[in-house]
Amino acid sequence: MTQEITMGSLFSGSGGFELAGSIFGIRPIWASEIEPFPILVTTKNFPEMKHLGDINKLNGADLEPVTIIAGGSPCQDMSIAGKREGLDGSRSNLFREQIRIVKEMRESDRAAGRTGKQIRPRYMVWENVPGAFSSNKGKDFQAVLQEIVSITDEESNVPLPPKGKWQTAGCIMGDHFTIAWRVLDAQYWGVPQRRKRIYLVADFGGNTAPKILFEREGLSGNFTESREAWQRTAGDIKTGTHKTGTDDVECYDISDRRRVADKSEVSPTLTTKMGTGGNNVPIVLENHPQDSRVTIAEDGNVPTLTSRMGTGGGNVPLILSQSHCRSEADVREEVREH
Fold first, then answer.
1. Of the N and C termini of the chain, which has fewer Cβ atoms inside 10 Å?
2. Could you tell me if 279 and 271 are in contact, meaning their C-beta atoms sit under 8 angstroms apart?
3. Which helix (H) or strand (E) holds 46?
4. pTM for this predicted structure
């Protein structure tokens, strides 16, 4: 039995998300909008949908749970045509109300006994202007991603890309969630105008976000050029980028492995959660070509440490075990035995 997919729409306007969803069998349940005319439009087109009014007065725990919460928060403060007050501007700051409602609904669903992928909303969709990439030197889009990550993971940090320059497509891979974004131009979707917008999808219960944005086929409309440029998946986590036309796709792995893959090839700051095993203590081997010759075998095992594998004058390797740090004397004794 196929489970019905339902949607709640924030900043509903004239019902763009509701229309798009209904075309593919997603049922709009409720919408939040304050402008009278757009409400008249959606009332006519979706007579069964509930209208909830001002987003500031909504509590996610009180709303009917839905599979997807979609919304294009006001963009004026991040648009290159505006004053660029950024995400903290009085209008664009309403994005955080969307985050609040998603968190409240998920917390309520979890309290009701749902777990894992069953917690609603499973998905979040966000739309905004490309100016969000450059607003506040890239820090505003970083904040957007960080807020979305915090819905399901309070500990992970989203890195700022080199020079604060975000690519027009990318993804984030977490332990149990994924986020993907890309810029779409309305001229390739049956609209007689050039209108570029960021579309971001978050899957809080799995790895489908990149698939939704980069692999989806069979959609209606004249979008040949867009589809040819983005017909492949978001990227290879091992390399961090994947050529998909004119742009590379940034892909950040912020799972417990904390491997950040981007074009800068610079490793992030080591943290206590970068290791493996119970206590997640990282093991670092510094490889100098002339004296260490450290290689990783195909089976993933590190070779026996020798006295020439360390750093500094004595070349003593530093070993951090899962439960305790070994003393330098213990290390030297083990090296001599080998």
1. N
2. no
3. none
4. 0.69
